[in-house]
Q: What sequence folds into this?
């Protein structure tokens, strides 16, 4: 039985990832490029100051992609690795990087879909090996410890109102 | 289990509310959305049918703020309770850190509760991963209604893991934040030990 997989991304890995995403966003003319986990959590976005609800976007895109994979299974197709939504103003392109990672791009009609696919494929070649080393066992030991647990418990008590205060 | 971004100093935990149709999953999330500090919550996203039954999931991100230099977030999801939506439930369970099993306390809902509980464990086992560091809480909802099971009876039926049990009435908010707090503390404690 496999250990439950988490994902820890180091500073060095993130620097390379952000560099790849920034370049990809530039050459494709995308509005933004984001990496998310298949469980629906955002990892990083380029440009970093993009005005978008990335939390909701990540949850919905991951859900949509997961449903697409199930569609493939129903249709007895090995896998659909790409999801494309065409809109009036912009398009959304979601592609699988690894078992745990998805990439999404949004771009307008002045950008050619073929160009996006070409550059995305190249970016994936760089990104895939990085995530092979993004293990769940390294780097987090010092951060997620007993002290963190205690401080988080206090913060939770402060954030969530007591029953008496709710009424 | 959790997603840790050391560069951005961020950690994200995924909590899933699971239970049979009309058990009160969505009501829990809606209450949290209404009552939590607006600065700490994101948008409540619901993929529901026209009759407001959950079709795919509800999603609510909550921010705990910065803890020991780490921005800590909880992503709350519900699953559709109706039995024919099992494919959707499996998808929402991917990467889960903690589960709130919401039981409908009414005696008339016994079969639905048991089916949903067995279905939860079938789906978790199908992931073929070690479940020992998964947070788990049993919420007994609708305690304000008549004709309900006793706490001990429901515990015997729906809590083979000996997880914390909380009584609730999600409609009025009784027990809602206590449940959330309990599962959040559990997933953090388990991630600090794993």
A:
């Amino acid at each position: 039985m496999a250990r439950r997989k988490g994902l820890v991304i180091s500073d060095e890995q993130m620097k390379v990832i952000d560099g790849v995403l920034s370049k990809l966003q530039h050459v494709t003319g995308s509005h933004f490029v984001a990496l998310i986990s298949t469980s629906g959590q955002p990892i990083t976005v380029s440009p970093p100051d993009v005005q978008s609800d990335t939390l909701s976007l990540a949850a919905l895109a991951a859900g949509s992609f997961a449903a697409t994979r199930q569609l493939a299974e129903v249709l007895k197709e090995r896998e659909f690795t790409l999801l494309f939504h065409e809109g009036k103003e912009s398009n959304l392109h979601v592609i699988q990087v690894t078992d745990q990672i998805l990439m999404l791009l949004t771009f307008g009609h002045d950008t050619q879909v073929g160009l996006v696919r070409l550059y995305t494929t190249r970016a994936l070649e760089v990104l895939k090996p990085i995530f092979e080393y993004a293990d769940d066992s390294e780097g987090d030991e010092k951060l997620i410890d007993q002290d963190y647990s205690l401080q988080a418990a206090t913060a939770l008590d402060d954030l969530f109102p007591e029953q008496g205060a709710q009424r | 289990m959790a997603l840790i971004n050391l560069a951005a100093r961020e950690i994200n935990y995924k909590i899933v509310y699971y239970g049979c149709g009309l058990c009160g999953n969505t009501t829990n999330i809606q209450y949290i959305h209404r009552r939590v500090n607006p600065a700490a919550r994101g948008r409540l996203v619901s993929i529901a049918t026209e009759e407001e039954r959950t079709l795919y999931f509800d999603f609510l991100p909550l921010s705990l703020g910065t803890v020991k230099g780490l921005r800590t977030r909880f992503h709350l999801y519900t699953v559709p309770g109706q039995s024919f939506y099992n494919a959707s439930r499996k998808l929402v369970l991917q990467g889960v850190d903690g589960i709130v099993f919401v039981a409908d306390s009414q005696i008339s809902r016994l079969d639905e509760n048991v089916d949903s509980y067995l279905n939860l464990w079938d789906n978790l086992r199908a992931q073929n991963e070690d479940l020992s560091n998964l947070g788990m809480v049993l919420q007994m909802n609708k305690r304000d209604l008549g004709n309900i099971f006793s706490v001990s009876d429901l515990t015997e039926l729906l809590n083979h893991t000996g997880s914390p049990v909380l009584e609730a009435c999600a409609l009025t908010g009784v027990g809602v934040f206590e449940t959330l707090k309990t599962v959040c503390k559990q997933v953090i404690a388990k991630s600090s030990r794993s």
The CA atoms of residues 86 and 119 of chain B lie 8 Å apart. The helical segments of chain B are 25-35, 86-92, 110-126, 151-158, 176-193. Chain B touches chain A through 62 residues (CB under 8 Å). The longest strand of chain B covers residues 54-67.
